[in-house]
Amino acid sequence: MAKTPKSNLYEDLKRQILTMELDPDADLDEASLSEKYGLSRTPVRDIFRRLAGEGYIDIRENRGARVIPMNHSTLRNFFLVAPMIYAAIGRLAVQNFKPAQLSDLKQTQERFRAASENMDALAMVLENNRFHEIFGEMSGNVYMQPSLGRLLIDHARIGHTFFRPRNEDMRRRLRLAVEHHDGFIAALGAHDEDAVVDLVFEHWELSRENMEMFIAPQGLKADAFVGGPATQLLEKSS
Description:
Layout: H1 5-18, E1 27-28, H2 30-37, H3 41-53, E2 57-60, E3 64-67, H4 72-96, H5 99-117, H6 121-139, H7 144-158, H8 168-189, H9 193-215, H10 229-237
Antiparallel strand pairs: 1-3, 2-3
C-alpha cells in the first residue's frame, strides 16, 4: 500500500513515542505537524483521535494533545497486570494462530536478531514490539488485543535500558531474550500452551530488573508488584 502524508504522520508518531524520541507527556503541536506533513488540521486531528483510541496519546479539552504520560499510577498498573495479560494472550495465540501469522512472527524475529547483533537499540525496540503485537493478532480476541496494545506502549518505553546494555550481564540477558523468542516460535509450532506460558514468565523476569533501573529514580520498585495479586491469580488459573 502506497504511503500517504496521513499514514506517514500516523506511523512516525507511533515510532517516536515507542522509541522515546517523544517524551512522555510531551505536547503535540497540531500546527507544526500540519505544516511538516503537508496536511490540513482535519486529517491531523483524525490521526490524533486514532492514536488516542490506541493509547498512544491523550487529548485534553481546550489543551490539545500530548503523549500519554508515565506516572506512578501508570507504572503500578503496568507491573500489576503485565504478566497476566501476556500469559492469557499466549494461551489464546496457541489456540488460534494462523500459519501466515507464524511466518510473520519468524520474519520479525530474524529482524530482531539482526538488530540485537548490530546493537541497534531503536530497531530492537520496534521489532520486539512488533513480535509481541503479532501474538495479540494470533490471539484473535477483541477484548485482549486493545489491552495488550496499551501495555506494549509502556513496555517499549520502560524497557529502553534493556536494549542499551551497559555491561556483560545485560548483554547476556539480551542474548537470552533472543533465545526466548525462538522458544516462543517453537512452542507455538508445537501447539504447546504450557511451554508458551512458562516462557512468558521467564521472559518477563528477564526484563523486569532492567525496567527497575529505568523507574528506580522515581522511587518505584517492580518487586512490589511482581509476585503480588496478579501473579498469584495467574498461578491459580494455570
